[in-house]
């Protein structure tokens, strides 16, 4: 990888690639006095790094529980398409994936029906066959996802599809009638499992979104732009998409999260500023001038 940077014209020695287990080299790197700043993308590991980094500047993009709020005046076909796109692309293994659907009760049945119809057509299998749903990254990840599903099922949630798993491969699953007392309502599965929580008011949806320990992104589906802006202002997340699924966006676009979702803001300009140390030099003239305080 470093060789690619050299071919692009970067001076040798400017970029180093150190590989190894985080448990063996992580603390050494993050606590070394020669480190000027740390940028990290991940999850709980980022929180651990932040506790050890001391006064080193940090830029972190961590986990998310991105909420999709669907109002009763939304374009339901558009909303359903984006729920599937946002919740199941990359098998749900994206920080910006839709992680919970908060839908008004009056249109919940329709949304669930439309999403189920699309999920039924998704291809499942190995990535070599260009399947839409492929195995999650590790067996422990699959076990964690299964634990969330079983907890929700035991507490009364409705599995819209049969739960099916082969090793690390988990079939796409929509879980309806999820309640706040279920782990799936709050924890990030990072896989092809999507909970649906039925709400009776906009305030209920905003409250659930803001009660999360995450605050990366969120999205709103409504035809009322004024209502969308009002909800966006109230949602405590780094970015809110209106009538589209959450997404990283272009590289120059600010990308940030609140609470356990991160520290600082990514994006070309913000990253350069984060990695720049500001220094002031004041020249005091021997004779008074109008610039002197």
UniProtKB/TrEMBL annotation:
It comes from the Eukaryota. GO terms for molecular function: glyceraldehyde-3-phosphate dehydrogenase (NADP+) (non-phosphorylating) activity; lactaldehyde dehydrogenase (NAD+) activity. The active site is at residue 61. InterPro entries: Ald_DH/histidinol_DH, Ald_DH_C, Ald_DH_CS_CYS, Ald_DH_CS_GLU, Ald_DH_N, Aldehyde_DH_dom, ALDH-related_metabolic_enz. The keyword Transcription regulation does not apply. Its EC number is 1.2.1.9. It is an enzyme of class 1 (oxidoreductase). Residues 1-280 form the Aldehyde dehydrogenase domain. This is NADP-dependent glyceraldehyde-3-phosphate dehydrogenase. It catalyses: D-glyceraldehyde 3-phosphate + NADP(+) + H2O = (2R)-3-phosphoglycerate + NADPH + 2 H(+). Belongs to the aldehyde dehydrogenase family. PANTHER family: ALDEHYDE DEHYDROGENASE. Keywords: Oxidoreductase.
């Amino acid at each position: 990888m470093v060789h690619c940077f050299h071919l692009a014209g970067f001076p040798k020695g400017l970029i180093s690639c150190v590989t190894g287990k985080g448990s063996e080299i992580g603390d050494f790197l993050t606590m070394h006095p020669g480190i000027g700043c740390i940028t990290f993308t991940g999850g709980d590991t980022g929180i651990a790094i932040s506790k050890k980094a001391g006064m080193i500047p940090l830029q972190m993009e961590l986990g998310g529980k991105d909420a999709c709020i669907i109002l009763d005046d939304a374009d339901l076909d558009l909303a359903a398409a984006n729920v599937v796109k946002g919740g199941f692309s990359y098998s749900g293994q994206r920080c910006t994936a839709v992680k919970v659907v908060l839908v008004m009760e009056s249109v919940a049945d329709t949304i669930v029906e439309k999403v189920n119809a699309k999920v039924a057509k998704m291809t499942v299998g190995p990535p070599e066959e260009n399947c839409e749903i492929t195995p999650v990254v590790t067996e422990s990840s699959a076990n964690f996802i299964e634990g969330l599903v079983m907890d929700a099922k035991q507490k009364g949630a409705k599995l819209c599809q049969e739960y099916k798993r082969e090793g690390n491969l988990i079939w796409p699953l929509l879980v309806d009638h999820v309640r706040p007392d279920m782990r799936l309502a709050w924890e990030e599965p990072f896989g092809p499992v999507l909970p649906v929580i039925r709400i009776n008011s906009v305030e209920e949806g905003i409250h659930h979104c803001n009660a999360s320990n995450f605050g990366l992104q969120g999205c709103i589906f409504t035809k009322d732009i004024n209502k969308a802006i009002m909800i966006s202002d109230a949602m405590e997340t780094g970015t809110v998409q209106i009538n589209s699924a959450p997404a990283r966006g272009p590289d120059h676009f600010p990308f940030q999260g609140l609470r356990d979702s991160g520290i600082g803001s990514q994006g070309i300009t913000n990253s350069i500023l984060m990695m720049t140390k500001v220094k002031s030099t004041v020249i005091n003239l021997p004779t008074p001038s109008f610039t002197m305080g």
